[in-house]
Inverse folding.
C-alpha cells in the first residue's frame, strides 16, 4: 500500500500547565528553552509522545524525567492542532494541567531542562509557540472546577483562615470576591471545619483557622 504523503511528518506532543498555590497565590511553573526555535524563551513543560504510550503516560514520564515530579492525575484541557503552530513540522499538542504542592521539591534534570521558575499567574512572560493559549485553556478549565471541593482540597493548604482561602480563590478566578458572598458560598458547600485554633500571626483580632472536612 502506497503511503499518502498528506500524513507525512506529523508529531503528537503534550504540553503541561503545572500549577501550585504558593503564599496564597496561584503560580505556574515555566521552563526556559535552551534550543531553537524560541531559544531562551519561557514555555510550558512538554515533549513528544512515544509510539508505545498514551498521552497521559507521556505527561507522567515527562514530568518525572525533567523535574522529578510524580503526577498521578493529569487533567485534559484541550487539543491544539493549528497546522503552523510549530515552524519545524506538523505538531499536534494535547494539553494538560496538574498541581504540585507548595513544599514539593523540584529537581531539574539539567540535560533536559536548564532553568525553571514559578511565575504568578498575573505576571506570565511572553511564551514560546502557542503556549499562552494552552495556559489560558488550562486556567479556564481549572476555574470551572474551583468549587469542586474534593478536587480542590488535594492541592490547597491543609489549614487556612477564611481570609487566606478567599485570597487563593481570587487568585485562581482572577477577580475580587465579595467577602460575605464568598463565606456564604463556602458555608453552603458544608466543607469546612473550625479547628478551634487562632491565627497568632494576626496583629489585632485573631482569625479562626479552618480545614476541609
Amino acid at each position: 500500500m502506497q503511503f499518502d504523503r498528506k500524513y507525512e511528518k506529523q508529531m503528537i506532543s503534550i504540553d503541561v500547565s503545572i500549577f501550585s498555590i504558593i503564599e496564597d497565590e496561584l503560580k505556574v511553573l515555566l521552563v526556559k528553552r535552551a534550543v531553537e526555535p524560541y531559544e531562551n524563551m519561557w514555555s510550558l513543560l512538554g515533549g513528544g509522545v512515544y509510539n508505545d504510550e498514551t498521552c497521559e503516560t507521556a505527561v507522567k514520564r515527562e514530568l518525572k524525567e525533567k523535574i522529578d515530579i510524580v503526577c498521578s492525575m493529569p487533567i485534559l484541557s484541550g487539543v491544539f492542532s493549528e497546522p503552523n503552530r510549530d515552524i519545524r513540522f506538523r505538531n499536534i499538542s494535547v494539553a494538560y494541567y496538574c498541581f504540585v504542592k507548595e513544599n514539593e521539591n523540584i529537581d531539574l534534570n539539567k540535560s533536559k531542562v536548564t532553568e525553571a521558575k514559578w511565575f504568578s499567574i498575573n505576571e506570565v512572560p511572553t511564551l514560546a509557540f502557542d503556549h499562552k493559549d494552552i495556559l489560558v485553556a488550562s486556567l479556564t478549565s481549572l476555574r470551572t472546577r474551583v468549587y469542586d471541593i474534593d478536587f480542590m482540597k488535594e492541592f490547597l493548604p491543609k489549614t487556612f483562615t477564611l481570609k487566606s482561602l478567599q485570597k487563593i480563590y481570587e487568585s485562581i478566578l482572577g477577580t475580587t470576591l465579595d467577602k460575605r458572598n464568598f463565606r456564604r458560598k463556602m458555608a453552603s458547600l458544608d466543607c469546612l471545619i473550625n479547628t478551634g485554633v487562632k491565627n497568632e500571626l494576626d496583629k489585632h483580632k485573631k482569625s479562626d483557622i479552618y480545614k476541609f472536612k
